[in-house]
């Protein structure tokens, strides 16, 4: 599997974009170790979304993910955090999940007006900790 940007670099870029300083070398080391272990246990992991022909925002992908989470019986118990309205927010909501967006964009029009939007992960964390994040 080839990537335009290696996954460990992408994780570091995203983390730093949201105000977190990460050690890229440690992420790479942890990623490789965990990926190798994952591939030993689930050799078809990398082929699954292609095999299922599902990817975000297809609600079936969210349903499949939900089935893999122990103890979760309905989508309302799930929260998807993403940065793309169509792929992340709409896909999750259509699957019955709760969803929030992390973006620095502030000039939103419909249909974004009812979307829970945070500028970074720290703001989301603070909203959760202070019980200011509620879902119906």
Q: Would you kindly provide a written description of the structure presented here, covering whatever features stand out?
A:
About 15% of the residues are buried. A 3-stranded parallel sheet has the order 1-2-3. It is mostly helical. Helix 5 links the parallel strand 1 and strand 2. Helices cover about 45% and strands about 10% of the residues. The protein has 6 helices and 3 strands, in the order H-H-H-H-E-H-E-E-H. It folds into 2 domains: about 40 residues, no CATH class; about 70 residues, no CATH class. Helix 1 crosses helix 2. This is Haloacid dehalogenase. It comes from Danaus plexippus plexippus.
Low-confidence runs of at least 5 consecutive residues: 45-52
**Average of pLDDT:** 74
DSSP summary: helix tally: 6
**Strand order, biggest sheet?**
1-2-3
Q: What is the molecular shape?
A: globular
How many angstroms does the end-to-end distance come to? 40 Å
Amount of helix: 40-55%
Secondary-structure element order, as H and E?
Answer: HHHHEHEEH
- Content of β-strand: 5-15%
- Oligomer description: single chain
Class per helix and strand makeup: mainly alpha
Q: What is the radius of gyration computed over CA atoms, rounded to a whole number of angstroms? A: 17 Å
Q: Give the beta-strand count.
A: 3
Structural domains: how many: 2
Largest sheet: 3 strands, parallel
């Amino acid at each position: 599997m080839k990537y335009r940007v290696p996954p460990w670099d992408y994780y570091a870029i995203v983390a730093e974009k949201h105000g977190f300083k990460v050690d890229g070398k440690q992420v790479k080391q942890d990623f490789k170790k965990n990926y190798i272990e994952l591939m030993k246990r689930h050799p078809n992991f990398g082929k699954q979304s292609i095999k299922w022909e599902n990817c975000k925002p297809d609600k079936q992908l969210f349903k499949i993910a939900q089935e893999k989470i122990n103890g979760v019986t309905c989508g309302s118990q799930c929260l998807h955090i993403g940065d793309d309205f169509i792929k992340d927010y709409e896909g999750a909501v259509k699957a019955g999940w709760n969803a929030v967006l992390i973006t620095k964009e502030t000039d939103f029009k419909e249909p974004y007006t009812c979307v829970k939007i945070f500028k970074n992960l720290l703001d989301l964390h603070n909203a959760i900790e202070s019980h200011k994040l509620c879902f119906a």
